[in-house]
Amino acid sequence: MTPSETRAIVSLSLLAAFVDGEKHERERAEIKRIAEGLSLADGMNLPTLYQDVLMKRVSLASVAGELKSTESKQLAYEMAVCVCDADGTQSDAERMFLADVRSSLGLDASAAQFSQQAEEIAAAVPAPAAGTGAAVAPAAVAAAPSPDSAELDKSILNASILNGALELLPETLSTMAIIPLQMKLVYRIGKAYGYELDSGHVKDFLATVGVGLTSQYLEQAGRKLLGDLLGKMGGGLLRGLGNQAVSSGMSFASTYALGHVAKRYYAGGRTLSAQMLKETFSGVVQEGKSLQTQYLPAIQEKARTLDAGKVLSLVRGA
């Protein structure tokens, strides 16, 4: 893959991130932070690409013209689909954009099938609770039996290992699955403490601690792309210990932190302030990063048991 194709793929992902015009300023700032934080590759200046997209100095036509190989076109489209689906199922604007991408890149029916699979993953999030979906009354929470704290810790660790393993897989859909699996983890923890939540509540929790869904996907995919870990671009699975540690480290750490912060939040009756949640999350992320090396062998072993065919069933059955 040439440097111009790499830049085009990242540019198309950023175009997809802003196509529906509904991104909150907080999410825009997070996407910008990701662009600035990712390493430069092949002379690519990611902050400049971000500004070019935001200021409409690049277009779908100009980006498509840079993508020459079949592999780069397919990868660019897959990443655009997953960016559109990262914060939920596609809007009308996103569907029209992706149809234009398929047409501009000359992709066949298999591309539309990939979009359908990504939509299934995006839709496989906690369903609305009965009524308004609001948390149950404090009295009901107080009367509920206390969950087994050690079992919850075990489930958080297992979810962290699984998401670290998914990030090692070369398939784009594998990275896409990380976000709904994180959402389901938070949902299950809330439910264990007597709270019936829906996807809106879980998204609000993630946003409060500082996890933007679109920006998190861009970060995961960007590390994978710029680290040259995509098997279809010439590598195969599990290419080297150093790259694996970089690739799976943040997914392991962010899942670990989300689980433990959710546990503290719902166990304490949702009394932590937004600032306390952010500070706690930041601290536990660092703890997760330090643990990731310890659990890297388990992450690698888990990755060897997974393939693209299992991703959707994992999300559905989590």
List the helices and strands and how they pair.
Blueprint: H1 3-18, H2 25-37, H3 46-54, H4 60-66, H5 70-85, H6 92-105, H7 109-123, H8 138-143, H9 149-168, H10 172-176, H11 178-192, H12 199-209, H13 213-226, H14 241-267, H15 274-304, H16 308-317
Please report which band the strand proportion falls in: under 5%, 5-15%, 15-25%, 25-35%, 35-45% or over 45%: under 5%
Number of helices: 16
- Backbone shape: globular
The Cα radius of gyration reads 19 Å
Helicity range: over 70%
The H/E string reads HHHHHHHHHHHHHHHH
Judged by helices, strands and strand pairing, the structural class is: mainly alpha
Features:
mainly alpha, 72% helix, 318 residues, 16 helices
Short description, anyone?
This protein is an all-alpha fold and 318 residues long. The chain contains 16 helices and no strands. α2 runs antiparallel to α3 (46-54).
Your description of this structure?
The protein has 16 helices and no strands. The protein has helices at 3-18, 25-37, 46-54, 60-66, 70-85, 92-105, 109-123, 138-143, 149-168, 172-176, 178-192, 199-209, 213-226, 241-267, 274-304, 308-317.
